[in-house]
Specification:
The complex is a heterodimer. By secondary structure, chain A is of the alpha+beta class. Chain A has five domains: 7-137, Four Helix Bundle (Hemerythrin (Met), subunit A) (Up-down Bundle), CATH 1.20.120.160; 150-257, Alpha-Beta Plaits, CATH 3.30.70; 289-346; 349-525, Histidine kinase-like ATPase, C-terminal domain (Heat Shock Protein 90, 2-Layer Sandwich); 530-681, CheA-289, Domain 4 (OB fold (Dihydrolipoamide Acetyltransferase, E2P), Beta Barrel). In chain A, 45% of the residues lie in helices and 21% in strands. Chain A is built from 22 helices and 21 strands. The model of chain A is unreliable at 140-145, 257-281, 481-491, 566-571 and 673-684 (pLDDT under 50). Chain B contains five helices and five strands, in the order E-H-E-H-E-H-E-H-E-H. Helix content of chain B is 41%, strand content 20%. Chain B has helices spanning 11-21, 35-44, 61-69, 88-97, 109-120, and strands at 2-7, 27-32, 49-52, 79-83, 101-104. In chain B, strand 4, helix 4 and strand 5 (101-104) form a beta-alpha-beta unit. The radius of gyration of chain B is 13 Å and the shape is globular. In chain B, helix 1 packs across helix 5 (109-120) and helix 2 (35-44) runs parallel beside helix 3. Classes of the chains: A alpha+beta, B alpha/beta. The A-B interface holds A 1-5, 7, 10, 13-14, 17, 51, 54-55, 57-59, 61-64, 181-183, 186, 191-193, 196, 208-210, 212, 220-223, 225, 285 and B 9-13, 15-16, 19-20, 22-24, 33-34, 36-37, 39-40, 43-44, 55, 57-59, 63, 67, 70-71, 73, 83-84, 105-107, 109-110, 113.
Chain lengths: 684, 126
């Protein structure tokens, strides 16, 4: 029996997983590079890198992205060779592997954008092939022994031996932990996965060996797992952390005493561990569009609640006892608010994850500028809405580029200024007030020269920091004579300001001291909502409506609109035939009470509402379709039914976002109300 | 119900495999994200079919096969190895270690269904 399963349905999930694997690839490559600067192999990182690349290859094959398969296949071959040689990579390999990673990223971006994927560059494939030959020239690692039970020892590879011995030499305890799985354990949630996770939090696991044993009451599965790990903790600390009895743990090699840790754990490495630690624990990957869909469903629920509230008010007017109904309605309102907050929380991503790629950017800058820069990222567990994160990232990259390119001096310059040879670049974040996050990009470079800035901008010397910022953000301003490769001319401060202030509704500030350094402060809301919207003009004003609420845009000749019976009580309402079905037509300007000049526009566009209500809103002119950032109207005085918020279409002026569903809902009830009024009181 | 254990460290891959196998009625799925988890599940419960990846973070599919085939109870369990390693060496190693059948990624839904069919529909005597 054949089943029509279209694996391209998995494309979104594929892209998300590959994105994540590419993050691993970059961090591992950087860790390998920093180890190689100390002339050390990085066996665990090479293995991790190999695995990430291998998985990308497998997935890409399934969804048929041949270019990525071609690249990853060669990366994989190269890395497998390196893994067999104790994690040694030939000179220049990291550069080529980074280039390969970039090529994969380009192709992933193309898939994201839905454009065709270019073939793998032949030069890159050639370079990877050449490296593979180099790997074969590297020597195999020397072998040695470790005191372990023979059954387990025989299962270790040379690389795993080396890693364990190396750990003991570096002052770590090498232990075995025995875990016997059983249904009782499994019911209590204690499985090999949880044991391994818990141990991994306090130790570095090198190997897990499954051993068969006779089935018995104490070993119902006939299986024992032996985990080999190194740690700085004691046996009892390890037992407690894992939640097993002390007897499960045996020390295989005591930490070598009086041996200094071979190398202090380097900053990059620590970052890697922290970042992965934050994000891996029990995570679920969800397509953002699904969350948006959920929010949209919630919005219709909120509209339904508003209708309910109106009906309750109507009953009350008619003299019905509604106290209990009101209580329920209020309770429901509170629950809806909570639900909305919970859904919004799902969209939060760790800032640490957002900044994953920054070390890579800085690494590139180190090479192009020849400057020595130390990057430190301290963002703790702060989180941002996915939409905010995506928008803010280019701004951060701009600031990082500027800091290295223009802020931090070259080696000679720094020594002359009496500074450390290595420039310091720091990105940190902290929550401010409710719902805002402050991100600071700090360098210890030359600072901003106000006189020079004034001269270039042809303006008076700025006296305050906000004046400095205003000058920096003038479009097209550059504080340097030459156009640099990395930052280009114009520095993009204007773009940074536009993203932070206009798009996200946040604040941007600069603190700079001549000779000491600069700090750029980005203060942004934790969450924003972004929707696809149609923008249009009506009675000389611009409006936006969510794309999702519009079923169709029609050309409407006002002359073809017939006055129908349901239009009573509504100015300009009528009927229009659409594919044999009558659609109510209303003039948006009339609904909103907009003043219009003498002349009436003759040709109109009709936005037909999606949903049960066949209503078309007549507007003057469609402007386009774009993503907009919704800023809710918080002032209760302007909380008007039918207006969800405001947005900035890039002209700096607020544009109202209309909720056509609510507007139509309002029309129906007011129409009914007016019909009733007519019936009962013979008015109108 | 025929109980199938799908072992792959990639969630997307697991989902794809299960989506493909849904074309065969009467299968119930359990999955494992690592070789160790697979061994644990196999030692604690009975399964009728295993779909096994070779490359996984802790222990690979070959080691899972070696372990499983070393257990009397599991010696005849049908195991379909599904892997990106398409070379002859990998196939030989997998078959030697005890794989019942071997399928290379990328595969089509029809292909994996026919592999599974070949494993499950054979006469009980063999």
């Amino acid at each position: 029996m054949s089943t029509p399963v279209d694996l391209s349905e998995f494309l979104t999930a594929y892209l998300a997983e590959v994105d994540e694997l590419l993050g691993t690839t970059s961090t591992m490559l950087l860790a390998i590079e920093s180890a190689s600067r100390r002339a050390e192999p990085a066996p665990m990182q090479v293995r991790e890198l190999f695995r990430a690349v291998h998985t990308i290859k497998g997935l890409s094959g399934m969804v048929g992205v041949d270019a990525i398969v071609a690249i990853t296949h060669r990366m994989e071959t190269l890395l497998r060779g390196a893994e067999r040689r104790g994690g040694k990579l030939p000179r220049g390999a990291v550069d080529v592997l980074l280039e390969a990673t970039r090529c994969i990223e380009d192709r992933v971006r193309a898939l994201h954008a839905g454009v065709s994927v270019e073939e793998a560059p032949a030069t890159l494939l050639g370079a990877l092939d050449a490296l593979e030959l180099d790997v074969a020239q590297l020597n195999e690692p020397a072998s040695f022994t470790l005191s372990l039970e023979p059954t387990i020892r025989s299962r270790l590879t040379a690389l795993e031996h080396e890693t364990l011995i190396g750990a003991a030499k570096a002052g770590r305890r090498v232990v075995t932990l025995r875990f016997v799985p059983s249904p009782t354990h499994a019911e209590a949630g204690v499985t090999i996965n949880t044991v391994r996770e818990r141990l991994a939090a306090v130790a570095e696991i090198v190997k897990v060996v499954p051993l068969a044993m006779p089935r018995s009451e104490s070993a119902p599965g006939g299986l024992v797992f032996v985990l080999l790990a190194s740690s700085v903790s004691s046996e009892s600390e390890l037992a407690t952390a894992v939640g097993l009895e002390l007897g499960a743990i045996t020390t295989v090699a005591e930490p070598a005493t009086a041996v200094m840790p071979a190398v202090p754990e380097d900053a990059t490495r620590v970052e890697v561990d922290d970042a992965t630690g934050v994000r891996r624990a029990g995570a679920v990957r969800v397509d953002v569009s699904r969350l948006d869909e959920t929010l949209e469903r919630l919005s219709s629920l909120i509209v339904a609640r508003a209708r309910l509230a109106r009906e309750i008010a109507r009953l009350h007017e008619a003299g019905v006892e509604v106290r209990e109904l009101r209580l329920i309605e209020r309770e429901q309102a509170r629950q809806l608010r909570d639900l909305r907050a919970s859904i919004l929380a799902l969209r939060m991503v760790p800032v640490a994850e957002l900044l994953d790629r920054v070390p890579l950017v800085v690494r590139g800058l180190r090479r192009t500028t020849g400057k020595s820069v130390q990057l430190e990222i301290d963002v703790g567990r702060d989180e941002l809405d996915k939409g905010v994160a995506e928008r803010i990232f280019p701004a951060i990259v701009h600031l990082v580029r500027n800091a290295v390119d223009h802020g931090i001096e070259d080696r000679a310059g720094r020594l002359r200024a009496g500074k450390d040879e290595e420039g310091q670049l720091r990105i940190e974040s902290s929550a401010v007030g409710s719902g805002q996050l402050e991100i600071r990009v700090i360098d210890d470079g030359r600072g901003i020269d106000r006189e020079e800035l004034a001269r270039r901008a042809g303006a008076p010397v700025p006296e305050t920091e906000s004046e400095v910022l205003a000058l920096l953000c003038r479009a097209g301003l550059s504080t340097r004579d030459e156009v640099s490769d990395t930052s280009g001319r114009g520095m993009g401060m204007d773009i940074v300001r536009r993203i932070v202030v206009e798009q996200l509704g946040g604040q941007l500030a600069v603190r700079s001291e001549r000779g000491v350094g600069s700090t750029f402060v980005l203060c942004v809301p934790l969450t924003i909502s972004i929707i696809d919207a149609f923008t249009f003009e009506c009675a000389g004003q611009r409006f936006a409506v969510p794309l999702a609420s519009v079923d169709e845009i029609l050309e409407v000749d006002p002359a073809s609109v017939r006055q129908g019976p349901s239009s009573a009580g509504l100015d300009g309402a009528g009927l229009l035939e659409r594919r044999g079905v009558a659609v109510s037509v209303v003039h948006l300007d009339a609904v909103l009470g907009l003043a219009r000049g003498r002349e009436r526009v003759t040709a109109k566009k009709g936005l037909v509402l999606r949903g049960e209500l066949p209503v078309a809103f007549l507007v003057d002119r469609m402007l386009g379709q774009q993503e907009i950032v919704v800023r809710p109207l918080l002032d209760p005085l302007v909380a008007v039914a039918g207006i969800t918020g405001a947005t900035d279409l890039g002209d700096g002026k607020p544009t109202l976002i209309l909720d056509l569903v609510a507007l139509a809902g309002g029309l129906v009830t007011s129409r009914r109300a007016s019909a009733r009024a007519r019936r009962v009181e013979l008015r109108s | 119900m025929t109980k199938a254990l799908v072992v792959d460290d990639s969630k997307v891959m697991r989902d794809m495999i299960i989506a493909c196998l849904r074309g065969r009625p009467g299968l119930a799925f359990t999955h494992a994200s690592s070789g160790l988890e697979a061994i644990e599940r196999l030692s604690l419960a009975a399964f009728d079919l295993v779909v096994l990846d070779l490359n996984m973070p802790d222990i690979g599919g070959i080691e899972v096969l070696e372990f499983v085939r070393g257990q009397d109870r599991l010696r005849t369990l049908p195991i379909l190895v599904v892997t990106t390693r398409g070379d002859e060496g990998s196939r030989t190693r997998a078959i030697e270690a005890g794989a019942s059948r071997f399928l290379t990624k990328p595969f089509t839904p029809d292909l994996i269904l026919s592999e599974v069919g070949a494993l499950l529909d054979r006469p009980a005597s063999t």
